[in-house]
Amino acid sequence: MASDVRDVLSAAVDAVGGTERPGQIAMAEAVQQAFDTEQHLLVQAGTGTGKSLGYLVPSLLHDQRVVIATATLNLQHQLVERDIPALKEAAREVLDDVPHHAVVKGRGNYACLHRVREGAPDDQGTLVEVPEGTLGAEVVALREWAEQQADGGHVGDRDAAPSHNERAWRQVSVTARECLGAQRCPYALECFAERAREDAQQAHIVVTNHAMLAIDAIDGVPMLPEFGTVVIDEAHELAARVTQAATQELDPAGIERAARRARPHLTEPEAADDLSDAADALADTLTHVSPGRIEEPPQPLRAALDLVRDTARACFSAFGKERGGEEPDPARQQARSAVDELRQVAERMARGSDTDVLWLGELRTGQQLRIAPIDVSGALRDKLFGEKTVVLTSATLALGGSFDPVARSLGLWEDAQWRGLDVGSPFDYAKQGMLYVARHLPAPGRDGLEEDQLGEITALVKAAGGRTLGLFSSRRGAERAAEYVRMALPDIEVLCQGDAQLPELARRFAEEPSTCLFGTLSLWQGVDLPGDTCTLVIIDRIPFPRPDDPLMSARQRLVEKRGGNGFMQVAAHHAALLLAQGAGRLIRRADDRGVVAMLDPRIVTARYGGFLAASMPPLWRTTDRATVMAALGRLDAAAVERAAS
């Protein structure tokens, strides 16, 4: 079988115009071995390895269905639109039969023909044909597109839809709870979501996302066809995505909205009034609760949650039963689902389980309660790793030089059947880039960027001639640095997150020479900026979680309760992943050159600094400012010369 893997891999690499790399071959053979032996595999494949083909080829050749789960829509789109079609076309040269592939997304990613044709309910549950203004024009365009998709037998996927905003898309789509169901919907035979799931039943490779995998494997809600083998790409995101999928919110405004929608459909309308009164009671109670984690809900809050739960249950019962033969009512279905979800969330919050974290956050519209699992490793261990063969891959899985931290966070303990493999990177990081630590600067304070850090940022940007990606721990820090550099260096354009939509800012940064882009966490990963666009990456401080982060602080306490080091296993782990991802923005191609500038001296002065530094790409390291400034100057001169030629 190894020769088959190599033959198909070679053909696939040729098909995408790439170059076979030793790390890619080693990865493909290791994945194939993991499938055959049913042993879990963690494989770190650096940028440029070609890891997608490294797991797609053995997945194509495996004798059972393989599910591939990604964290981002960008990678999912790349797999479905580019990598898998190219692989299948190449495989036809060496295989007699090339299996089918399909993609499965959440129901809300597909247009709903019932909503398109019948209209969407407003906050009072009344069907609205078309909203007015610009929103209305977008909805009309989306409806016409959905009908064209249905007529042409296409997929009705949001990614292929005309330009629109979130509000417009909600007018033509439904959530899983709002869906009438295939048995009751008059348009079930044409349904895009149902057809996607039917297509997946016939597929050998099924591409989905982490959240769908979690709902299927952990929650036990059937979202995917039967499978025994799964590849999880961007696996460093898995625990966070599983946590996100299991997080729920409750706020007075949402309760009031659910009551308004329910009222027209109730046999006892006063049940909706009781639910509205419960919303008011919760709002009043929350004014006496401090923002942040709620370790033990005070009695008034527990009573308010009990009231929401009980009135939601009574409201749900007051919907009564639909009469046989009646046309399904989407507004009723949506209202009923919203009320039942309120009941479930309030019940979970009132129960106060030791396995959950409850906290109070602030929204622009008021206060909101949130609840999330404190630890997902046990669920992953029992429901995913205990029942499936799993391959996890990412460019950042070995933290501090070891796979153990990530494995432990995902539920793979020492006794589990797994192994780790680092296939390296085709890049020579030590020759292509520098990691500069500004040791002369003071450690960052709680008040954000000080004059010393701002001056250092300005000097670095000036030496680089712009071409800087600034990664900051807060929006306020990014904005302050952008304002400072604009004033000090008026000839260099500085874009800042929030000035426009992120894709637009990234496009301008890539296309306009000497431009800088400053931003926060969404820029730390998933942004691909090769070449002279980015020769300097500035990181303002070690990205530890905030001390008042309810979920992270609860996880640290849990680790300490179990006898571990909460700071290292949670806070340092979190920071190491982000540093690895952030520093990874610099070298994206074999001819990239540049500097990662770390303004936080603790990475070389603190005891935990070695662990963090070992998690980053192995760039040549220095604390000498003059050396770095000279290197940036040479890179700038070379870029100007290339642009002129």
TrEMBL record:
<dbReference type="InterPro" id="IPR014013">
    <property type="entry name" value="Helic_SF1/SF2_ATP-bd_DinG/Rad3"/>
</dbReference>
<comment type="similarity">
    <text>Belongs to the helicase family. DinG subfamily.</text>
</comment>
<protein>
    <recommendedName>
        <fullName>ATP-dependent helicase DinG</fullName>
        <ecNumber>5.6.2.3</ecNumber>
    </recommendedName>
</protein>
<keyword id="KW-0547">Nucleotide-binding</keyword>
<dbReference type="GO" id="GO:0006139">
    <property type="term" value="P:nucleobase-containing compound metabolic process"/>
</dbReference>
<dbReference type="Pfam" id="PF13307">
    <property type="entry name" value="Helicase_C_2"/>
</dbReference>
<keyword id="KW-0378">Hydrolase</keyword>
<dbReference type="InterPro" id="IPR027417">
    <property type="entry name" value="P-loop_NTPase"/>
</dbReference>
<keyword id="KW-0067">ATP-binding</keyword>
<dbReference type="InterPro" id="IPR014001">
    <property type="entry name" value="Helicase_ATP-bd"/>
</dbReference>
<dbReference type="GO" id="GO:0016818">
    <property type="term" value="F:hydrolase activity, acting on acid anhydrides, in phosphorus-containing anhydrides"/>
</dbReference>
<dbReference type="GO" id="GO:0043139">
    <property type="term" value="F:5'-3' DNA helicase activity"/>
</dbReference>
<keyword id="KW-0347">Helicase</keyword>
<dbReference type="GO" id="GO:0005524">
    <property type="term" value="F:ATP binding"/>
</dbReference>
<dbReference type="InterPro" id="IPR006555">
    <property type="entry name" value="ATP-dep_Helicase_C"/>
</dbReference>
<dbReference type="GO" id="GO:0003676">
    <property type="term" value="F:nucleic acid binding"/>
</dbReference>
<feature type="domain" description="Helicase ATP-binding">
    <location>
        <begin position="10"/>
        <end position="304"/>
    </location>
</feature>
<dbReference type="InterPro" id="IPR045028">
    <property type="entry name" value="DinG/Rad3-like"/>
</dbReference>
